[in-house]
Amino acid sequence: MLIILLLLCYISISFSQINVYFTDPYNKDRPSLSEISTRLKPIDFALKEFIESATPGTTVYICVYQVNNTTITTAIDYIVNRGVSVYAIFHKDVSTAVFKSSFSYKKIGSNERLMHNKFVVVKSSKVWTGSYNFTISATYEQDNFAIEIFSKDLAEIYEKAFLYMWDGSGVIGEFNNKQVILNERTKITVGFNPYSQNPELKDVLIENWYDKIEGKVKVRSLYFAVAWFTEQALKEILLKLVDNNVAVSGIVDDNASGNSVFTELRTKGVDIWYDSRHTLTSGDGLMHHKFCVVDPYGASPKVICGSANWSEQGLSSSTVGWNYENILVIESREVAEVFYKEFLRLYKKAVAEKVISTSDELVEAIIFYPNPVSKKLNIKFTPNRGVKEVKFLLISLYGIRMYEENLNFIAGVENKVEISIPNEIKEGLYYGILRVKSFEFSKDYVKKIIVR
């Protein structure tokens, strides 16, 4: 019981400034409520709560591609009637007949240039953003995420971006490619299209994966879920990552059928799949995510997410048909773990036979060598994709813990790590243990080791 209480306290502390929400259309009982969310609240009711928290006399900025969910429109009407100043930017096709109140708004964009953002700002307080449009379909029929961040600094960045879109006031350098430090474990860098000239949003993704100047990879594993992936530059970098033994796995929506990027990646052996529901329309069943997770259990885990699909239109400010978009680079182990769990949920649906092992083992093919060992012990092992932590322990025959080390690893592939045996470890017989943890449970794998 004490362990459970400590875990709950840790989760509460870790996410005191960030909440992440996912939809779960597979859940037939409550399709807008996902068990993976950091708060068990339906995504539209979480946004309702976010909006209604605005106090009279303050200002709320809304920038969204689509809106028709009455839970959300009613919340906007509510704060307007309470004396909150509301300014909104919609895509050109949005109907304002869904609102009963009157507030200031503009419609921008075109068929070629979408106003594709999905964010809300409570002035100088907090930000809501993600892939989630404020619609019934997005709530109940699609896979979406939203992220709620409590940060005055980040709110002011988004406010400046909104006002620049609104009337051209301000300076791009004051809001684009800016970093906010929430705490010692969490940093956030934000970029906006089409204002991200150098680097462009596609370069933001690439620069977090690969050093073009040095020609070196920066990551050991990369997992992505993106509705539409057509950007050629990203495809080329993913192929470089795979050539350099980076574990890459991805899910795209079936609307990408016939897409040359998907075909090329799949043909060249990249672990990329269509979402399991094989969407044929843009609404019901759409896997609408736009995120990637980098090294979720490595030294520098991060999530790159936002409103932009991986397309030239969404990620480039130099192309003719650019969209209005925003993305976040979130450096946080806790947030990376949450998004990785969502990736696994989709992956398991798409390719269950590759994820669910024929055995119940968390890790297979364990080899310790050389044995006997003097100074360097090598360990080979293959953890399944649900593994979140692997620790090596050296235990004496009397049960005394002599040494332990957390291992860096890539889930789903064979790993090889090298352990330096401390000089103070005397010759003798020991137990070498791999302590492996998944999201649900942990298990020890024990081998006898002779140190000489």
Summarize the structure.
With 452 residues, the protein is α+β, with helices and mostly antiparallel strands. It is 25% helix and 33% strand.
Largest sheet: 8 strands, mixed
Strand order of the largest sheet: 8-9-17-16-15-12-13-14
- Give the uncertain stretches in residue-range form: 1-14, 353-358
Question: Total number of helical segments?
Answer: 11
Cα(first) to Cα(last) distance is 42 Å
Average pLDDT level: 90
Provide the structure class.
alpha+beta
Portion in helices: 10-25%
* Shape category: elongated
How many beta strands in the DSSP annotation? Answer: 24
Radius of gyration: 24 Å
In terms of DSSP E residues, the strand content is 25-35%
Description:
Helices cover 25% and strands 33% of the residues. The chain is built from eleven helices and 24 strands. The protein has helices spanning 2-14, 43-52, 70-82, 136-140, 152-167, 201-209, 232-243, 260-267, 312-315, 333-350, 352-355; strands at residues 18-22, 59-64, 85-91, 104-108, 118-122, 126-130, 145-150, 178-183, 186-193, 210-211, 216-217, 221-226, 247-252, 271-274, 290-294, 302-306, 325-331, 363-369, 376-383, 387-396, 401-406, 415-420, 428-438, 442-451. Helix 2 (43-52) packs parallel to helix 3 (70-82) and helix 6 packs parallel to helix 7. It is elongated, with a radius of gyration of 24 Å. The two termini are 42 Å apart. Mean pLDDT is 90; it is low at 1-14 and 353-358.
Give the tags:
alpha+beta, 7-stranded mixed sheet, elongated, disordered N terminus
